[in-house]
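Cysteine--tRNA ligase
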Amino acid sequence: MTLHIYDTMSRNKQEFIPLEPGKVNMYVCGPTVYDYIHIGNARPVIFFDVVRRYLEFSGYQVNYVVNFTDVDDKLIRKADQLGTTVPEVAEQFIAAFNANITALGVHQATLNPRVTENIAEIVAFVQELVDREYAYESGGDVYFRTGKFTDYGKLSHQNLDELQLGIRIGVDERKESGQDFVLWKAAKPGEIYWDSPWGPGRPGWHIECSAMARKYLGDTLDIHGGGHDLQFPHHECEIAQSESVTGKPLARYWMHNGFININNEKISKSLGNGITVDELLKTVKPSTMRYFILSSHYRSPLNFSDEAIAQAENSVERIANCIGNLKHRLSVAVSAPSDAESHLRIRIGVIEHGFRSRMNDDFNTPDAITSIFELVSEANQYLQRTVVSVEGLELLIGAFNKLDQVFGLLSLEQEGDILDTDIDDLIVQRTEARQSKNWARADEIRDLLAAQGIVLEDTPQGIRWRRK
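Predicted structure tokens:
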């Protein structure tokens, strides 16, 4: 089966063919680390984690780079507000970002380069643009000469005439043209700065990604990703900068995820409706959050609401309960397989084929989720048998674990403050307490488990437990 990706540049699905067989170089624009990430930031973080996981699942070696913008106007303002330094602000919120993505089950990127660690490369990149007359210095700032790059607007499908009409009156007089954008900013008094051929200053936003992508992944990326809002101007400017220097396409495939709305309203500071991931994780399980993000196609808008989260939670619980039942029956299963296992192997193969087919269609996660529920149905039918085999149960559990290498739901669902072995020990203690009529101890253990979100259920095979 062949993977096809919807490429923003061509506005079509394209067969995925990396530059080097078996290897994928992927760059996704990371956060500006001046605050905690919000729910809108969580969508690309989780989705591109799944893209990376699926590529690895498919046998590719993935070099996945996500940058940190650790110097910027926003960090400077934050440092002033807090009475601290820009590096200290950056360290605080990089640590918060890493804690958040770990909680959400996101695998660490291959590399998280920081702007402040790549100033020399950024300055050299700007100098190349100046030398090629794609950039010019004005008052200590350096601007990109947009009109010289004839393909400007090709990603967002705009042209310079349309962009010119959209520019407000009162363009900075230091610019040759209103569409020109800054590559290097002259430092204001008291601001953090680095020396450069044009005087003390710091990088503009767009140039940092061009320089770091080239340094760590080469002139042409296999995949460049980010949120829909980055198409213009950020990615458009990256293309202009990079291709003016290299003469090569910056990326073979451009991927952009859609927005998240909250109760059908756009996330906006003016509306005050942003929800940080820190706040969200106090009431929503990480597995629920991942499921919610993946339950809609990445290019479509996604609406966050209490109802949507409740549906996601119920869906994850249904999957977790099924696996819990499989593991419980495994403790009392017979060793000898029956004819049912041959049927299981065939059905699991069909389900896995369907999963791959759906994911190969532009990472269609909502359709791929149906494969997981097909597996749930197959498992539930098997569990209705009076006698089940170790082989059959292990086939089903293995199939769930295999698909979860991509979605990353089950490991999060199984995490908790109390270990599985501790739960089993407490259940044994409770059973012994009840047999000896020590009702107080039995109730104490029951309440302890309930406080940890553990539900006990009587079954023909004995007591089993599950997490709420």
